[in-house]
Amino acid sequence: MSLIRGRDTAAILLLSTLLCLVSLCGCGQKIEGPSETPGGLAPPPNTYILTYEWNNFPGTTDIIVTTGGFVYVAQESTQVAAYTTFSPKRHPLIADLVGLARPVLVAEGADEQIYVADAGDTTVKKFSRSGGSPIQVFRDTAWVAIGGIAADEAGFLYVADRQKEMIWKYISSGIRDSSFGTNGVLSEGGEGVGYVRQPGGMCFDGVYLQVTDTGKNRVQKLVPDEFAFGVLSVTGPSLEDPFESPLDSAADSEGNIYVADTGKRRVLKYDSSGFLLATVNWDSTVVVGEIPAVAAKDKWVYVADPEHNRILIYELR
Hints:
By secondary structure, the chain is mainly beta. It is built from one helix and 25 strands. It has one helix at about 1-25; strands at about 30, 50-55, 60-65, 70-75, 80-85, 90, 105-110, 115-120, 125-130, 130-140, 145-150, 155-160, 165-170, 185-190, 200-205, 210-215, 220, 230-235, 250, 255-260, 265-270, 275-280, 295, 300-305, 310-315. The strands form six sheets. Strands 1-2-25-24-23 form a five-stranded antiparallel β-sheet, with no helix packed on it. A four-stranded antiparallel β-sheet has the order 3-4-5-6. The relative contact order is 0.14. The model is unreliable at about 1-25 and about 30-40 (pLDDT under 50).
């Protein structure tokens, strides 16, 4: 335990130095936003503008932005890299996560601890935000293909298996939460609200577990301590324009929902009641590939574009 605290202290001191140097060393490419929309009009208020482009990011599978303002990126199934968001120019943070075989998903838990789904050994590993070796490893023989993970401030971990079409809830010790009578099963395969098909990216919005229900082309919010109890289901802008194989979704501090509509190569923003607010990447002059991951914090939205080896950062103006 003393070794972990020592690592934290050293990392915090080094991070303070890095933050002082960001203005000199930031390496995010600044993008000048368009002065007009495709229709020839100035972008209206509350429009997202592409502001930064982080290049040399091949194979990004997940992104999160922590409460402390750090960006963690799962990249090429080989590493999880962490960056500061100051400006928000790309700048490395010392957070070397050791002991990962094939990391594919990232989540933030209590005290800014980082959870990583490792497809190499089908585990979820918990780290201090300063990195080092895992401080805890979660295993369950029921897992086959982890499609999403999330954690909450109370220390609970949520794991979705896209092949088995199930979501489980675990207490901080790593065993299933049996408090709601289903041996930790929060949802399973089914067509109704509260049930899932091929579940993907998840996050905890402070009240509900938000699940990207890929197989049913929707995003759901589930009550985290009752079996298959859904309170919201978002399926797309309209019946004529549904989501197409969404892989991920995010939530911000105001409860807004951001959907990576993967098949249609767009990110859509909804309010907490499911009302469409904006298309984040509305500018058709910026060609984006299929989007596997999205993250949001404050006025910024981070969009993974592995087809073009980059992360696009949009700013709300």
